[in-house]
Structures are given as C-alpha cells and as structure tokens.
Amino acid sequence: MIELTPLARPYAKALFASAIESNTLEDMAVELNTMAVASLEDGVINTIENPTLSRQEIVDILVKLFDDSISETSKKLLSILAENKRLNLLEPIFSIYQDLLEQHKKQKSVEVFVAVDPSDSTKEHIEEKIKATYGNDANISF
Fold it and tell me: pTM (2 decimals)?
C-alpha cells in the first residue's frame, strides 16, 4: 500500500499557511477533523470511489454532507483534492496539520492507553501529572 503522508504534506502545509494568514488555526483543525473522520466512513468512501460520479458531483455531495460546518477554504480544498483525485488524503492531511499546529503552539500531544476505563477522578489525576510534566497546554486523550 502506498504511503500517503508525502502526498498529503503539501496540502497540509498550504492549508496551515492559509489558516495562519486568516487567523483560523483552531477552526481549520476542527473542520479538517470533521472531514477526516467522515472520509473513513463506508458511505463516504463509496461516494469518493464511485466511477459514475464526476469530480464536481462528488464535491457537491461532500459539501452537502458537511452542510454549513465547513468554511469556503475547506470547500476549495475538497474541490482541489477531487480535481487531483486525492480525496483519500483527508485523514493524513489532518494528521500533518495537527503536527504543524502543535509545533506552532509549542504544544505536546499525549495519548493515554489503559486496560480499563478510568474513573473521572483518576483521569483528573493522570491529567495533572501529565500537565506537570509537559505543560498546561498539552493535548491529552484517553
């Protein structure tokens, strides 16, 4: 299987530069996450890979799917990706964008894996310890 990260990097960098310029770094991250999660769903995959649909029809379907939850910039991204037959890059674009955002904010991400679902008090305790180590702006997910 082909490694998608090198193909996704230019799109992520361009989107990040645009988000810095328009001061929409966080909003763009949310939009990219929404599109990336949706791109992994079977219905969306089938739509993207449907040979009977034109590229514009695919973009129109995706824009309707996301309704008003994405900006014009994201709609343009979808059009460009469709034009270049790269809609399968949404997830790696989001991942690279997140990395760029963390570097920009000098932030760390910490993913915690545990055998059983911890209680809220245990999660708070773990978060306190992680924030003490990595800083208060660390992204923590369980």
Answer: 0.74
